[in-house]
Design a protein that fits this description.
- This protein has one domain.
- 71% of the residues lie in helices and 2% in strands.
- The chain is built from 11 helices and 2 strands.
- Strands 1-2 form a two-stranded antiparallel ribbon.
- β1 and β2 form a beta hairpin.
- α3 crosses α8, α4 runs parallel beside α7 and α10 runs antiparallel to α11.
Amino acid sequence: MAETPLAFMIITFVVLAAFFVVDLFVIGRNPHVPSTKECLRRIAFFVAMALVFGAILWGVAGSKPAVEFYSGWLTEYSLSIDNLFVFVIIMANFAVPRNLQKYVLSIGITVALVLRGLFILIGAAIIERFTWVFFLFGAFLIVTALRTAMGGDDDEEYHENAIIRALRKVVRITNEYDGEKLRTEKNGVRFWTPMLIVFLTIGTTDVMFAFDSIPAIFGLTKDPFIVFTSNVFALLGLQQLYFLLGALLDKLVYLPAGLAVVLAFIGVKLIMEALSGNSLPFINGGRAVEQVPELPTWLSLVVIVAAIGGSALASVIKMRHEAQAEQRQSAERQ
């Protein structure tokens, strides 16, 4: 297997940086509600770019990194879709005007990218020195999977965290927005606008998202380059996905079940890898457990595609059945 050339990685970072600048700060600076056609066009473009990138990676570095990228990208993209549930709740809770939501998402996604980049660097350093951390990552993902499957993350109400509650007590915040401004003036007095609270809420929420996504991707690949690019491609086009799926998120009823399967699978995979490279003295006398099989990378991709694709398909079938039932009931009433 060939190693990823340094020149290819540099070119990739430059191109992805250009994508983000254009997507978030050129196009995203125009506050408007994107049409369905615009959303579909841009989502299709970024999905196509991810597929093309994976194919190029296959050509320059081999099949294993490419399959790891596709697996990581699909996992992070699925988790990002699930995270849109929380974004919808936050936007509704703070009554963010529809035409400003695109701008708010631009800032939120940028913060998410920076935070995930930091988490990736920290995670890579920890994993290199302390392989036993896979036991913790695996257990965390399995617990998260159980909570997701049982509906533990499906809060229909947003609850302010301690940071936001403390901030409200020490600064003056108005109830009205003033465009994209963080500060405004009323009767000669300077106030913070609700935009400050929204940005802080999105930012602190992104931290919680990173605790799910980073262990999940490290369960599929240990290459920081693939981990980072998987996250970047998952975040690109998330703005448009928000507006496209905003009204449909509550109808994707089986998506949490699919995510739970993916997280549980990766959690088990991490624990198996930790056992095969074990150095903890209280497990097998500090020796590696040689009987633990190594799960191939392609199997991860198959499980992810089957779980996410199957849950999405099941949700669509249920939506159609419900729509047909409503049509029949409407016809009977007439």
